[in-house]
Amino acid sequence: MMRRRRLLDAAIVAALIGSAMVVGVLYCRAFERSRTPPEPWVRELSAAVAFACGHGFVDPGYAPSPAVAAFLEKKIDRISCEELSGSVPMRPPNFTQALYRYLTLSVGLTWRLLGVSWMKLAILFGLLYAISVVAVYGVFRLAVSRVLAVAGAMIMAVSPLQLRYLPQLRDYAKAPFILTLILILGLLVIRPFSLRRVLALAIGYGAVMGIGLGFRNDLLINVLPFIVTVALFLPVPIRSHLGTRLAALALCAASFVVCAWPIISAYRAGSNTGHVAVLGLMTYFNPPLGVTGSVYDWGAPYDDGFVMKVIGSFAERLRHRPVSALSPEYDRAAFEYLLLIARHWPADLLIRADASVLRVVELPFQIRSYTTAAPPAVVDGIIGSLYAAWAGVLSRLSGIGVPIAAAAIVAVSSSSVRVAIWLMVSLLYFAGYPAVQFDARHFFFLEFIPWLAVALLGEAAWRALATARKVRAGERLAPDLVVRGRRVVAFGLASILAFGAATAALRTYQQRHVTSLLDGYLETPTETLTLSPTRVGDRRVLLRPNHLSQSVEPRVRAEYLVVDITRRNCARLLAPVTFRYATTSGYTDLSQRVWVPVPQADEPFRLFFPVYYSPGAYFAGVEVTEADGACIAAVRRVTNLDRTPILLNLTLPPDWRQMKLYQTLTDWERPSAPYRVRVYAWPRTLDPAPLALTGMTPPPVSSLSYSDLVASDVAAGRWVIRGTARASTSFLARLPERTVSKGESFVLRGTLYRGGFTVGLLKNGLWSTNVNVVAPGEFLAVVEAPDEGPFVPALANYLMGISRRNDFVVTSLGWADPDLDQ
Fold it and tell me: Rounded to the nearest 10 degrees, how much is the dihedral formed by the CA atoms of 258, 260, 265, 266?
C-alpha cells in the first residue's frame, strides 16, 4: 500500500513537471514574441554570453560588438559566438555578475547547449517553473489530500501573477528555491522524527539555500526559519535530541558555505542588502503596503540615488568621513541606520510586517493590484476572456483572505498546537518579510499561502460534515472532541492576546519615546535664513536661501531646514510648499510638495526637511504661489546635525503631541495624522495650488438627490457619510447641473476614515472625469471640466472588497476658478 501511494505521488509529480514545463515554455516564448522592452539588468548577461562562447566567467562589457549590444537590448533574438571574438577585452565579473554568479552561469550553460538565443531560454524558465509547481504540490501534500494538492499546484501553474514574473529571470529565479526550502521546513515539522531524515534534510536545506544565493540574495531570509524550526518545532520534546539539533545546524551551515562560497567571497566587496532595506522604508511603499504614516517619515521617493544620499550623509555625520556607495563601509552604515530606526520606531516595523501579511493572504483576491487579469502575453482571445472572468469572481472575495488564513491555523490547532504555532510563526515571517521592500516581484510566489488556507479549511469542513452525519446516525462522538474544541478556543484567544499585547506594548513605548525624540528636534539650535524671492513661472515664487549653496557639489552634503507656517497675513486654508531642486539631465528630481493646513492657532505649523547637495542636483529653494508667500513666517537651518543623526521629514502641527506617533494599518485603523492632506487630481497634471478653497460650505443634502448614507451636519457645516452601502459603486449624491467653461474645477475636501468613494463630473448620466479617494486621512479632490458645457458633480461609493462600510466627512465642496485667488 505504501509503495502504491509513493508510485502515485511520483506519477503526479512527473505529470506536474511536464505540464508546468509546457505552460512555462509556451508562455515565455509568447512573451518574447511580444517584444517587451528588456529590464536594465539584462545587460549583465553579457557575462553569460562570454561563458556560452567559451571565454569563461568574465565580463566582456555591455557592447563588445554591435551585434552583442543589440542582442542584450533584445533588438535581435540570437547571435553566434563569432560576434564575440577573442580580441575583445575581458574583465573580471562586475559587482552584479559576481553576486548573481549562478544565475548568470545557468543562462550561459543553457546558451552553450542550445545556442545564444532569447527564445532558447524558455527551456530554463520552464524548468524553474516546474520546480516551483512541484514544491507547491509538496507543501500542499503535507497538509491536504492529493486532489486538493494537485488543484493547488495547478492554480499556481496558471496564475496570472506567477506568469507575470516568470519571464523576469532575476525576480523569478528565487521562487523555486524559497518554495523548496519551505517544503523542507514542512517535512521537518510534519514527518516523523528520525536522525537520518533530519540530517539529510539539513544538508539539503543548506545546499538549496547556498545555490539559491547565487541566483538572488533574498535567499538569506531563510536562515532564521531553519534555526527556529530545528530548535523549537521538531516532532519531539523541545529538550530532547540536543545533539541531533546541533548536528543539523552544523551540517546545514557547512553545506551552505560549500555551495555558496563563491558568492560569499563576492560579498567581501560590499552588497546592496542594507541599501534595499532602507529603500523599502520610503513613503512610496506606504499605499501599496497598506500603512498610513504619522507626523514623520524617513524619506519619500523610490530612488536609489536618494537612498545613497541618505546613507552617505548619515555615515559622514556618524564617522566624519565619506563612504563609497555599496562598499562594505556603506553596507555597515546602512545597517547602523536601520538599527537606529528599530530602536526608535519598533512599533512601525511590526505594523509594516503585519500589513504585509494582510496583503499576502489577499493575493489571489486582489490580483489586479499587482498585474493584469490575464498574463501580459495572453490578453486576447478565449484564454484572456477566461482569465478576466476568473479575476472578476475572485475580486468579489477581496477581504476574505484574513479570516480564512486565521481559521485555517486555528483549525490545525485542534490536532496539534505545535504545528499550528509553527504555521502561524511561518506565516508571520514569510508573509511579513516583504515589508522590507513591498513590491510584488519580492513576494508573488507566496500566492500559494491563501490557497493552502482554503484547502485546509475545505478538509476541516469535510471532517466536520462527516462528524455531523455520525451524530445524526446516533453514533457517540469521540471523547477527545471536547478537548480539541477547548484547545482551539484556547489557542485562538492566546494568539489574539499575544498579538494585541505585543502591538500595544511597542506602541506605548514608541509614543513616549518619539515624543521625547521630536522635542529634541524642536530644541536643536537653528539660524534664520534670509530669502531672495524669484519669479519662476505663472504666479509662482522661488524663495532662495541666501546663505546656502546654489550649485552642485562633488560629494554628498546635507542641510536640515525648518519652515514655519503661520496664519498671520495668510488667508489660505491650505498652503502647498514645494522643496525645489535644480537637477541636471540624467539625475532624479527630488523636488517634493507638501500640502500644509494653515494652523488656526498662533503657534506655527513646522516642517523639518533635509535637503541634499550632490553631483547632478542641488537644493534651489522653497517654492510657493504668490498668494502663499505670506504664509511662510521663517525658514531656518539646523546648525548642529550631530544632534539629529536621522534627518526626518517632519510635518508638525501645533497639536502634534496629541496625535498617534506611530504608523497605522490603512484599512483597519483611523489614520495617525489626520491632518495630512492627500491630493487627488484629474487630469494628473492639474495643479490645484492656485485654486480658491474658501467659502465652499456644502449645501443641505435635502435639496439634492442623495443616498440615505449622507447626512448634513448643519452646525459644523459639513456632510457626514456613514453606513453600509447597497452596492460597491452606488451613487451617494448628485449636485445641480451647471454649465462651465473648459478648465473650471470642482473641488471636494474632507476626511476619509474608512472605505472609499469616487468624485467626478457626469455628462449625459455617464462619468466624464473622476478620481477615486481611497486612502484614510484628509483629502483634497479636484476634477477639471474637460470641455465647455453642462456637468453634474457627483459622489459615489468606491468599495472594492467584501466590506460595504463607508465612513467619511465632506467639509468643503464647490466650483473653483483658477483665477479667483489671484
Answer: 160
Q: How many CB atoms lie within 10 A of CB 771?
A: 22
pLDDT of residue 480: 63
CA dihedral (603, 605, 608, 611) in degrees, to 10, reads: -130
Contact at 8 Å (CB) between 48 and 79? Answer: no
Buried b (16+ CB within 10 A) or exposed e, 529-552: bebeeeeeeebbbbbbbeebeeee
Cell of 393: 469572481
Of the pLDDT bands very low, low, confident and very high (cuts 50, 70, 90), residue 820 is very low
CA–CA dist 296, 676 (Å, integer): 11
CA 20 – CA 127 distance, rounded (Å)? 8
In this structure, which amino acid lies at residue 99?
Answer: L
The span from the CA of 285 to the CA of 759, in Å, is: 25
Lowest mean pLDDT among 113-117, 304-308, 692-696: 692-696
- b/e per residue 216-250 (b: at least 16 CB within 10 A): bbbbebbeebbeebbeebbeeeeeebeebbebbbe
How far apart CA 372 and CA 388 sit, in angstroms, is: 9
Q: What is the pLDDT of residues 322-366, one digit of tens each?
A: 888 878 889 899 999 999 999 999 999 999 999 999 999 999 999
Joined together, the cell numbers standing for residue 549 give 549653496
Handedness of CA 407, 413, 419, 421 (dihedral sign): positive
Q: Distances from the Cα of 27 to the Cαs of 131, 167, 728, in angstroms? A: 16, 8, 35
What's the rounded mean pLDDT across residues 580-607?
88
Q: In whole angstroms, what is the distance from residue 724 CA to residue 713 CA?
A: 19
Q: What is the Cα–Cα distance from 166 to 154, expressed in whole angstroms? A: 15
| One-letter amino acid of 361 | V
3-state secondary structure labels for all residues of 738-752: EEECCCCEEEEEEEE
Q: What are the phi and psi torsion angles at 727 (to 5°)? A: -145, 160
- Tell me which H or E stretch contains 412: helix 401-413
The whole-number pLDDT of residue 1 equals 64
HSE value, Cβ hemisphere, 13 Å, CA-based, for 506 = 18
Output the CA–CA distances (angstroms, integers) from residue 328 to 261, 333, 759, in the order listed: 18, 9, 51
**Region of poorest pLDDT, from 599-603, 650-654, 782-786:** 599-603
Residue carrying C-alpha cell 494568539: 495
Return d(Cα 508, Cα 502) in angstroms, integer: 10
- The Cα 130–Cα 150 span in angstroms is 13
Cα torsion 26, 29, 33, 35: sign: positive
DSSP SS3 for 527: strand
Distance CA 446, CA 440 (A): 10
Characterize the bridge pairing of strands 738-740 and 777-784. Answer: unpaired
Neighbouring residues of 167: CB distance < 8 A, sequence distance ≥ 6: 27, 28, 31, 32, 36, 125, 377
* Statement: residue 139 has pLDDT above 50: yes
Q: Cell match 518554495: residue?
A: 179
Mean pLDDT of 252-264: 95
Confidence of residue 821 (pLDDT cuts 50, 70, 90): very low
